[in-house]
Amino acid sequence: MADFRAQSDFKDFMLKNEITVSLVANSVSVGNVGGGEDTLKTLTIPRLTLYKDGVYGHGVAWGKFAANANSKRVKVKTGSVTLLDSGAGAFNGQSWDVEFWLMRSGDSAAEGLFLFRSGATSVRAYPSTVHDFGSDIGIVVTGEGVATDDVIAKAATLDATGAK
């Protein structure tokens, strides 16, 4: 896939006309390795994409938990800040997804809605975050389990929608 930032005229036109632009599509499965927290997917909102208030990024990642009684969890982070934590649970053999919207709300501020869903479990978070919009914003999905592949991320997508 071509570097999205190299197509800045096209991106600017699309965003300024409130058209959604696809930024990332990743369908490579990645699982956690042993105990502890591991990065499963990284979704990058390119610098200057959230160029004015009201422009937002929307991302989705999904996967599957191993069919066992091990404790498992999914988190979404930017830098060292945890934006969403599923909480620990067995999630025995269940599918999962995380979905988020991150909207610029000031010169260095953004408001978010982050969702985790798996079976009967649903977790929501509404973080206010601080960003340098002149730099890339990395959104990282992590998985934590007891054994390798307790948490597998199958795919992820990220897009941005402009504002007039």
Textual characterization of the structure:
- The chain is mainly beta and 164 residues long.
- The chain is 5% helix and 55% strand.
- The strands form two sheets. Strands 1, 2, 4, 7, 8, 9, 10 and 12 form an eight-stranded antiparallel sheet that branches. Strands 3-11-5-6 form a four-stranded antiparallel sheet, with no helix packed on it.
Task: State the helical fraction.
Answer: under 10%
CATH class: Mainly Beta
How many structural domains does the protein architecture include? 1
Count of alpha and pi helical runs: 1
SS-based class: mainly beta
Average pLDDT metric: 90
Proper CATH architecture = Sandwich
Radius of gyration: 16 Å
Portion in beta strands: over 45%
Task: Give a brief rundown of this model.
With 164 residues, the protein is mainly beta. 5% of the residues lie in helices and 55% in strands.
Layout: helices, strands, pairs:
Blueprint lengths: L7 H9 L3 E7 L3 E2 L4 E10 L10 E10 L7 E6 L2 E5 L9 E12 L2 E10 L2 E5 L2 E3 L6 E9 L5 E11 L3
Antiparallel strand pairs: 1-12, 2-12, 3-11, 4-7, 4-12, 5-6, 5-11, 7-8, 8-9, 8-10
